[in-house]
Amino acid sequence: MKAGVIGLGYWGPNLVRNFISNPEIEKVTACDIKNERLQWIKSRFPSVETINNYHDLLKGDTDMVAIATPVDTHHKIGKELLNSGKHIWVEKPFTSSTKEAEELIEIADKNNLKIFVDHTFIYTGAVRKIKEIILAGELGDIIYFDSVRINLGLFQHDVNVIWDLAPHDLSIMNYLLDKKVAAVTANGIANYYDHENIAHLSVYFENNCFAHFHVNWTSPVKIRRMIVGGKKKMLVFDDMENFEKIKVYDSSVEINNSESMHEALAQYRTGDMHSPKVNQTEALSLGVREFVDSILQNRQPITNGVDGLKVVKILEASEKSIKNKGKLIEIK
Ligand SMILES: NC(=O)c1ccc[n+]([C@@H]2O[C@H](COP(=O)([O-])OP(=O)(O)OC[C@H]3O[C@@H](n4cnc5c(N)ncnc54)[C@H](O)[C@@H]3O)[C@@H](O)[C@H]2O)c1
Questions:
Q1: pLDDT at 256
Q2: Ligand 1 in contact with 129 (CB < 6 A)?
Q3: Fewer beta carbons under 10 A from the terminal one: N or C of the chain?
Q4: Cα(98)–Cα(181) distance, integer angstroms
Q5: What is the CATH number of domain 124-279+313-330?
Q6: Among the atoms of ligand 1, which is closest to the Cα of residue 154?
Q7: Distance (Å) from CA 202 to ligand 1 centroid
């Protein structure tokens, strides 16, 4: 297969490297409008062909193309590629709006083309292990999901901190919980540019489950931590840990049934903690394999356009909520 990568800024070179390493991919063409990025890529990966106009990819025999440009360009470039018969890999967040996402999904479906949305974390050993633990029923009913992703920088100029950082956590939440989101509220402030640099997002589900996300580009410390609270056990995923990334706590709360509410007693159980082993394979290489396999096997990839759309719906609603001082926005 022949692959292309458009956008060779911070993230695109990682895609070039992983496309080159995939045994099914025989040729990689890399594109950027900046010549210095093309020279840099050529110096690192001499086998890669470089071009500065992505329209050259539309005409050729490239099978699949990754879009690693700023989000406001994803829809335009994606639409042109799909209309030229190419399978597309789109960086997170999938698109700038629900409408754009729906249109790309429709074109892909009509032409039997695949859309892979790069929700990278879904291919990490840690998230896979957490899913296994949840599916095995170890945590019991999930009642909350609490996530913190904060550090100093990198300010993005085109989107706010929720659009930049929360797609990671929202895609993990959707993958792990498999529950229908009902509504969101969000608050945040913009201290330096027009876009919020710190924000809090709450997600309400149709059943009695709640999720909260704290994202911030102006934190003195880097924290990448989430807690999945179950009725039986609770789990902490700390991505800053090198070894014990996941800890499962045998802790829970039980309310003794009593005829009167006032007599109902909360009992707190704190048992052992264990830390399961996590596969360390680079997530992007597994993502590229999944994209290639989905094309060869003519099936939807695990992180497809519909998953991208679900995240974009929450991002869009969060922006509306922030503009209205935390108003509850329902999600259809
Ligand atoms: N999956 C992840 O973990 C992850 C991590 C970082 C960034 N991203 C995503 O990757 C995308 C790019 O982010 P980045 O941080 O690499 O941005 P960046 O600004 O560093 O790089 C974007 C590159 O695209 C190029 N470009 C813009 N328009 C182009 C066009 N029409 N044709 C060719 N090249 C063009 C720019 O010249 C630039 O080199 C964003 O959607 C971002 O959210 C994903």
A1: 79
A2: no
A3: C
A4: 15
A5: 3.30.360.10
A6: 15
A7: 28
pLDDT at 207 (0 to 100): 86
What percent of the chain has pLDDT above 90? 93
Q: Which atom of ligand 1 is nearest to the CA of 119?
A: 1
Distance between Cα 68 and ligand 1 center (Å): 4
Q: At what angle do helices 98-110 and 305-323 cross, to 10 degrees?
A: 170
Assess whether the previous peptide bond of 176 is cis (omega < 30° from 0).
no
pLDDT tops 80 at residue 258: no
Does residue 196's CB lie within 6 angstroms of at least one atom of ligand 1? no
CA of 67 to the centre of ligand 1 (A): 8
**CA-only gyration radius of the chain, Å:** 21
Quick check: CB of 117 below 6 Å from ligand 1? no
CA–CA distance, 188 with 95 (Å, rounded to integer): 21
Cβ of 11 closer than 6 Å to ligand 1, yes or no, is yes
- pLDDT-derived band of residue 155, with 50, 70 and 90 as boundaries? very high
Going by alpha carbons, the residue nearest to atom 5 of ligand 1 is 11
Q: Where in the chain is the domain with CATH 3.30.360.10?
A: 124-279+313-330
How far apart (Å, rounded) are the C-alpha atoms in residues 41 and 51?
11
Q: Pocket of ligand 1, candidates 58, 69, 73, 217: which has the most ligand atoms within 8 Å of its Cβ, to mutate?
A: 69
Name the class of domain 2-121+283-303: alpha beta
- What is the mean predicted confidence (pLDDT) over 27-55? 98
Domain with CATH 3.40.50.720 in the chain: 2-121+283-303
With a cut of 90, say whether residue 259 has pLDDT above it: no
pTM assigned to the model: 0.96
pLDDT of residue 260: 64
pLDDT in the model for residue 263: 67
* pLDDT surpassing 80 at residue 307: yes
The CB of 91 under 6 Å from ligand 1? The reply is: yes
Q: How far apart are alpha carbons 166 and 220 in whole angstroms?
A: 19
The single-letter DSSP state of residue 297 is T
Average pLDDT over residues 24-43: 98
What span, in angstroms and rounded, lies between the C-alpha atoms of 307 and 92? 11
